[in-house]
Design brief:
Layout (H helix, E strand, L loop, with lengths): L8 E5 L7 H11 L3 E6 L2 H13 L4 E4 L5 H10 L7 E4 L18 H22 L7 E7 L11 H21 L4 E8 L5 H4 L4 H11 L8 H12 L10 E4 L13
Helix pairs in contact: 1-8, 3-4, 4-5
The chain binds ligand 1JT.
Ligand 1JT binds next to helix 6.
């Protein structure tokens, strides 16, 4: 493999720290010769993401809170004259209490918050950046198996990811004529900063590693390399899809211990 993304510019939303899946994607993109633009959410993250941007050789680091239409517009304005080839959306949020108590107890506000940040933001991001993708390109997001199966505790995020995966299909249809592809990567559980505080998360990781065909967890670099495939010419025929990068876990039905 050599320089699969040479000459391409990628904007990556969702780098918060070096454990972020978006950070692993940025590392793979840098290795493949992409020009990187990173965004951060609000002043609180500015210094951290600017430092990470330096490590990654990013060309620009911009503020962008995807829940605010005027901030998205300001980000697009800051990109004037730029051609984008790839947009990586690696953003999600839900209230902690909604990832532990029964799904039945989900509040209206908690439900709407998860939907707004985790699913609708892909629609607003695609609408904002597609006009800069003048030579076509690739938009991708991150999802999880809890979108299509009941996964204990994933709850409101599962419903938001189900909406996100449906957004991928509808956006793929709307943007296909401009040669913009839209896909999702469904990653196996990864110990990110967001996941770290989740109840029994270590048990989830161990359970997955015991059952998955590859008998291990997902390495974030594997997600980064699949993102390279989707962002490069190698992925040119793939749109509207969900690609599982999960050590094979999702194919299993009943698994009995060896
Ligand atoms: C969010 C969080 C989105 C954790 C997430 C997420 N997508 C995947 N994970 C990890 C995860 C979490 C649970 C799980 C399996 C994987 C944290 C809050 C912000 C949004 O259940 C088995 C609960």
């Amino acid at each position: 493999m050599s320089q699969l993304l040479a000459g391409k510019t990628a904007i990556i939303l969702g780098v918060a720290n070096k454990w972020s899946i978006a950070y692993a994607i940025a590392e793979s993109y840098r290795r493949e010769g992409a020009r990187l633009i990173l965004t951060y959410q609000g002043e609180r993250q500015k210094a951290t993401v600017e430092d990470l941007g330096k490590d990654l050789g990013a060309a620009m680091v911009l503020n962008c809170d995807v829940t605010k239409e005027e901030e998205l517009a300001a980000t697009v304005a800051a990109l004037s004259g730029e051609k984008l080839d790839v947009v990586v959306h690696s953003i999600a949020f839900a209230n902690r209490e909604d990832l532990s108590r029964p799904f039945l107890e989900t509040s209206r506000d908690g439900y709407l918050l998860a939907q707004e940040v985790s699913a609708y933001s892909l629609v607003s991001v695609a609408r904002a950046f597609a006009p800069l993708m003048t030579e076509g390109g690739s938009i991708m997001t991150l999802t999880y198996l809890g979108a299509v199966r009941v996964v204990q505790n994933y709850n409101v995020m599962g419903v938001a990811k189900a909406a996100l995966e449906a957004c991928v299909r509808y956006l793929a249809n709307d943007l296909g004529a401009k040669n913009i592809r839209v896909n999702a990567i469904s990653a196996g559980p990864i110990k990110t900063a967001s996941a770290r505080g989740i109840k029994d998360f270590s048990n989830v990781l161990d359970g997955v590693a015991a059952v998955a065909p590859l008998k291990r967890n997902t390495d974030p670099a594997e997600v980064g390399d699949t993102a390279v495939f989707l962002g490069s010419a190698l992925g040119r025929g793939v749109t509207g899809n969900v690609i599982y990068v999960d050590a094979g876990f999702q194919v299993m039905g009943l698994a009995t211990p060896e």
